[in-house]
Structures are given as C-alpha cells and as structure tokens.
C-alpha cells in the first residue's frame, strides 16, 4: 500500500459519506495528493519512515495551518488563511502525516454539539439525527466515519472527550502544558489543550508521542521529559487503585450510562484493579466556575478580532468605532456574543471580586478535590458525559442544559489534569464513553488503563 493509496482511500470515503456527515469545512486535496506522492518517492529512494508515516489526518479548524483556511467555524475568520503552522501541525508534518482537510467545530470552540458552527452542523455517523458532540464534533465524526485515520481536537471543558464519547472513539485531553498551544486560536488560555482523537488507544499513544513536548513559543509549555507512551501499553493493571466519585454516577447521570460504567469497572476488576467510591464535593460548582472563567478569558482573547487585523471587515462601517462594532456584530454568532458579554461583565470593576475572583477560588477547591483523591488512588473513573448523544435541535434553545452536559469533563480542565475517553458500550445504538482521569503528566497510566480495558 502506498501513501497515495491511503490518501486516495481517504478522499474516496469522504466522497461517499461527507455529504451526510458533514465533518469537513475545507479539503486540502491537491496539496495532500502531492505530498503523498512526495512521501512515496522519498521512500522509494530509500528514505526512512517517520513515526506516523503516510497517515491521512484531519485538523480541527481552530488550529492554524499554513495555506489552508482556518475559520474556527466563524464568519469572522471565513477568509483567514494563516501564514504559519501551529507547532502541533509542524510536528505532525515531521512525523510525515498527510493533512486531508480542516474539521468542523462549534464557533471558536464554544459549544458541545457542533450546532454553533456558523457554516453547517456535523451529524453523528452512528445516527444522523443526533449530534456528534462538540466542540471538536467534526474531528470526532471524521474519525468515526472512517474519513481520516485520526484527527486533532482541542479541549477547554470537554471538547475532545465528549465528542469522542458520542462518536464511539478514543479522545484524550493531555495535561495542561504538555502539548504546545502555539497556533491554537485561543478560547480560554488557562484551560485549552490540543489532543488526539483516534479509533483506539494505541493510536492515541502514537499521536500523543508525536505532538507533545516543550515549545519555547508557548509560555505555558511544560519543560519535562516525554516518556515513551507506546511502551506503557503493557496490558497490565494488576493492583491499580481506582477512585469512583459518587458525584460522577449520581443524580443527573442517565441510569443506562451509569450501568455501562459499572460494567466497565467489573471488567477492570477482572483485570486485577480495585475500585472504591470517593467524594469530590465541589463537583457541583464546576460548571458555574468554568462558565465564568472561560467566558472571562474568551472576552479578553476575542478582543483581537476587531476587523482590522484578521478576518472579515464590515464594508459599511463609516469610522473606526463602526469597524469594530459592525465587524463584530456581523462576524460573531449568538453563542460567542453571549460569552463575550458574560465574560466582560464578570471582569468589569465592581463585579470582578464577586464573580471572577470567586470562580478562581472555586477552581482551587476543585483542584484540591482531585489532589486528595489522587493521593490515595492511581486514577479516577466515571462516565465522560451524563447521556449519550442527544438529538439535533433538542438543546439549542436551552444553553443552560447544554452547559450542564459538561459537568463530568470541566473539572478536569479546571485542575489541568489529563483524561481519556474510551468507548464502553452502546445504549440504544449510541456509544457511551468511559473517562479515565490521571495525575498531572501521568498520561502513561491513563493510556495503560484505557488500553487494558479496550
Ligand atoms: N462545551 C464546553 C463549552 O461550551 C466545552 C468547550 C470546549 O471544550 N472547547 O465551553
């Protein structure tokens, strides 16, 4: 099989299914075919293979790609064609992948269903009436539908893990700082991480190996040695200590989802692990704290979209103020505006202490819940999301219900920890995700557990 064959197969599959799934925002066909040819020629001339040699991949559209539009699924950036590659994109090129295209998402990664894309929704390949999850919904659907070998997503409050769960694939959010954010269009800088969406855990280990590592261009990048993730997949989890927070399997969790998680815990017990129920008492405040903090950071990060420096400028603005006002009014969708308003309010003088500062304190308490549990246990396990994928349109008029979907993933971002979602069965034909949360920089353990389970 040549690289050209693989890339061919990818575009054939896209041709067959993407009119239904609609995972892509842009295809990179000409360029992909010519780099496939180049890789084949290099190999023919005795060149060596990179770690991910010749694999066709997709990239979430908030990760900048030189020469391929990067829209963040926003009208504001509909014409933005970056002049550089994100660090992760550069690393994947070094590992010799082939970028097939850019994947749909909720606008600026704000959402959990892909319905906030300014261009079109993406549909769940398991059942086209359901959402694929979000915000990396295109990234998850493209892998689940076999359009690409794997993809990159970003996770600020669950945006890799929740769509992975809804689409029956593996999604990992690395420890904050492990993967460079250089070239990731910022949503909430203290929470954002890029990570892999793959068909299985082994692929996740390979992809993480390729993209992680210190980057001087990201001031929050962790300067640590990167372990060999691939060799950590030993299958051996004897003696592993698992904490199961009672808040993660309690009220608000679909009983059928809970049942699948309990079955999964039985499987893990069969492999020699032990689990115990614990309490993470601050879980119930995580969603409120997250929406204040993430929106505050977003209101600041999105100030750069002013109609002057990037993207679309309103053509009927008559002065500078109108350039800002009209470009932003036309360019941003409703959810993005809602968050900018909430964040600006939370940061404004007089309210700062009551909202932003308070939320920061709650963040510390949540981090302490994790520190305590992970002092006595190796990993924390629960569902990735409270339900399976909901129907398209079911929650669009109710942002608060939509926000509550993230209750199980958000705490992990607030604490900066790594977590992986691995499929653990079906409920009424739709996949359920099992979430394995680990200690900071201990990706090797959560990969090992997920791999042993899978
Ligand atoms: N659904 C969450 C939100 O809307 C998480 C998004 C994300 O992780 N990017 O903010």
From TrEMBL:
Q: Which UniProt keywords apply?
A: ATP-binding, Ligase, Nucleotide-binding, Protein biosynthesis
Q: Does the keyword Membrane apply?
A: no
Question: Catalyses which reaction?
Answer: L-glutamyl-tRNA(Gln) + L-glutamine + ATP + H2O = L-glutaminyl-tRNA(Gln) + L-glutamate + ADP + phosphate + H(+)
EC numbers listed for it are: 6.3.5.7
Query: What SUPFAM superfamilies does the annotation carry?
Result: Amidase signature (AS) enzymes
Which sites are catalytic? 60, 135, 159
Amidase domain location: 5-447
Q: Where is the signal peptide?
A: none
Ligase: present as a keyword of the record? yes
Give the Gene Ontology MF terms in alphabetical order: asparaginyl-tRNA synthase (glutamine-hydrolyzing) activity; glutaminyl-tRNA synthase (glutamine-hydrolyzing) activity
Q: What Pfam families does the record tag this protein with? A: Amidase (PF01425)
Q: How is the quaternary structure described?
A: Heterotrimer of A, B and C subunits.
Q: Which family does it belong to?
A: Belongs to the amidase family. GatA subfamily.
What does it do? Allows the formation of correctly charged Gln-tRNA(Gln) through the transamidation of misacylated Glu-tRNA(Gln) in organisms which lack glutaminyl-tRNA synthetase. The reaction takes place in the presence of glutamine and ATP through an activated gamma-phospho-Glu-tRNA(Gln).
NCBIfam families reported in the protein's UniProt record? gatA
Name of the molecule in the record: Glutamyl-tRNA(Gln) amidotransferase subunit A
